[in-house]
Structure to design on (584 residues):
């Protein structure tokens, strides 16, 4: 296992490499890299990388995410040290970074935008974000500030939560140590430690089921609707086991019937609802078991395995102002005792719990063979026109797979270099990237704009419905679409557009696909491993058209990133081009 110094060198190498490929500065690349980790950790869903600094106002932000419901805000600020070896970042420096991000959040939430210097022409995305926050500040119940640094933080404890105008504010520090633990030691970026009494003012009073085994303890009882909704509000999708989260994102979170029951018949909710099945790694009790009853004050690694739609719907009811004080939900809590069997136990509980409802087990596993076949093809298909050694594109089916393979094959420095020559770093494609490349060409830019997780689920659903079986041609065209996407990304960067890059890229490719009626010579791109000048010229004409469309939503003042997630945005662009209102 590599130590933190070697990891730091590899991290800097990856940042420099991606910066060269994408044409972005190192800080943007590093922010995007940590954001990918936070997506995997379920902390965020669809981040937007940006760059705004106003020293006169004491403000700096490097990224953000505003939920579709306009009730949760994440703001990122990045510190990137250019040092040969890892160094520390002091408590004072951490607080200074927090203050710069918090100043932006404060000005936006309190409506004091005239106190900060945001030029609408120079920074349209930041101006749009600040304006959207200001308009929706009463809806924003929770905001988080994320400090991202490649140094090692002296601050080891969570910073104390605060509040701005009724919006709760929490702070997170993602430093080199946490990155190392996540990437190398496979630890979560942040442990899910829920302090029920401290955070939500109540505990779980449950009955212990008299089952004697070494694998788990089981408790049954009820949880209040308020506690459940507030916990989901605070932790979001991290509270959902992965399969449940995937189902909710693919099929829709909210059940209007559940909301109606909570509103009209709150005392009957317990009778009408099937309840929750949950798991936890550890339960902390406020007192000893008495007559079979236990009182649980804290839970570590608590996740909902069955009942995700109930939870999300109660949260929506709470956000709508409904009184949930009379709503109670049946709960089964399984606390894992044998951590060596943790993954298998959780998988089995999830499978059996969900085999009795709408979640299809075939749905949960349908893409395994598809992904495995793409991985197999990546080891077989040679890149044309390359001399000895022949190179290939590496398809990364699981997180960190490329680095694992480099280290597995590279038992010596020479062997590692040889493997990296066969599979160069610039020829690595992640499965979420593949979904983004394909769905952009399939004219689904609104889905791509929803973020990598939601887009990947849509991609998997399409593959399952159409029974896609990838072959060598499919793989070659996938790589060509990746080259098209990456080249468009770099072109947008070089043209100097200020903001909305992710949306601008996917919509530009979708429009190119529309104009070409999906009839395109991907073999030519594969053979050259780059775009021809004629394609670049077409994109140079398309990109300004897309920019003018997405930055002028039909409702004045609408947030551009939110508009780009809606199908109407793509429909309107197609209609404008078809009717000749926008000339390409």
């Amino acid at each position: 296992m590599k130590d933190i110094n070697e990891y730091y060198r590899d991290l800097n190498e990856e940042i420099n490499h991606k910066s060269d490929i994408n044409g972005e500065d190192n800080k943007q690349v590093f922010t995007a890299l940590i954001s990918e980790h936070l997506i995997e950790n379920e902390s965020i869903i669809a981040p937007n990388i940006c760059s705004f600094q106003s020293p006169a106002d004491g403000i700096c932000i490097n990224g953000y995410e505003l939920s579709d419901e306009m009730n949760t805000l994440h703001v990122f600020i990045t510190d990137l040290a250019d040092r040969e070896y890892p160094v520390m970042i002091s408590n004072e420096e951490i607080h200074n970074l927090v203050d710069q991000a918090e100043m932006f959040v404060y000005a936006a939430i309190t409506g004091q935008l005239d106190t900060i210097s945001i030029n609408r022409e120079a920074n349209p995305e930041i101006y749009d974000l600040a304006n959207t926050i200001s308009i929706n500040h009463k809806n924003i119940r929770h905001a988080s500030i994320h400090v991202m640094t490649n140094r090692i933080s002296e601050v080891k404890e969570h910073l104390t939560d605060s509040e701005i105008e009724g919006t709760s504010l929490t702070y997170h520090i993602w430093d080199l140590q946490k990155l190392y633990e996540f990437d190398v030691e496979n630890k979560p970026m942040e442990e899910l430690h829920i302090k029920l009494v401290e955070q939500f003012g109540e505990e779980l009073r449950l009955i212990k089921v008299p089952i004697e085994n070494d694998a788990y303890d089981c408790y049954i009882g009820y949880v209040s609707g308020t506690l459940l909704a507030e916990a989901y509000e605070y932790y979001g999708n991290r509270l959902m086991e992965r399969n449940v989260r995937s189902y909710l994102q693919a099929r829709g979170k909210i059940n209007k019937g559940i909301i109606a029951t909570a509103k009209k018949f709150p005392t009957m909710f317990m009778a009408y609802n099937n309840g929750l099945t949950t798991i936890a790694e550890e339960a902390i009790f406020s007192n000893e078991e008495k007559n079979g009853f236990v009182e649980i004050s804290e839970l570590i690694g608590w996740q909902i395995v069955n009942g995700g739609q109930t939870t999300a719907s109660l949260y929506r009811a709470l956000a709508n102002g409904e009184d949930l004080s009379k709503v109670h939900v049946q709960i089964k809590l399984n606390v894992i005792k044998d951590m060596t069997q943790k993954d298998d136990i959780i998988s089995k509980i999830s499978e059996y719990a969900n085999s009795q409802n709408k979640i299809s087990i075939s749905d949960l596993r349908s893409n395994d063979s598809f992904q495995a076949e793409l991985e197999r093809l990546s080891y077989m298909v040679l890149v044309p026109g390359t001399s000895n050694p022949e190179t290939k594109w590496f398809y990364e089916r699981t997180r960190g797979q490329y680095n694992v393979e480099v280290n597995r094959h590279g038992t010596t420095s020479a062997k590692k270099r040889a493997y990296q020559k066969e599979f160069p770093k610039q020829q690595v494609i992640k499965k979420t990237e593949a979904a983004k490349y394909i769905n952009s060409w399939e004219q689904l830019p609104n889905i791509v704009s929803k973020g990598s997780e939601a887009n990947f689920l849509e991609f998997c659903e399409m593959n399952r419905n159409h029974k896609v079986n990838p072959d060598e041609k499919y793989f070659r065209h996938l790589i060509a679409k990746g080259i098209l996407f990456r080249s468009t990304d770099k072109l947008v960067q070089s043209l100097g557009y200020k903001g909305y890059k992710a949306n601008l890229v996917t919509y530009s490719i979708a429009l190119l696909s529309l104009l070409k009626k999906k009839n395109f010579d991907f073999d030519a791109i594969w053979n050259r491993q780059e775009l021809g000048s004629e394609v670049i010229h077409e994109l140079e004409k398309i990109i300004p058209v897309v920019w003018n469309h997405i930055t002028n939503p039909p409702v004045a003042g609408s947030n551009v990133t939110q508009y780009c997630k809606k199908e109407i945005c793509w429909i309107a662009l197609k209609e404008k081009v078809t009717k000749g209102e926008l000339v390409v």
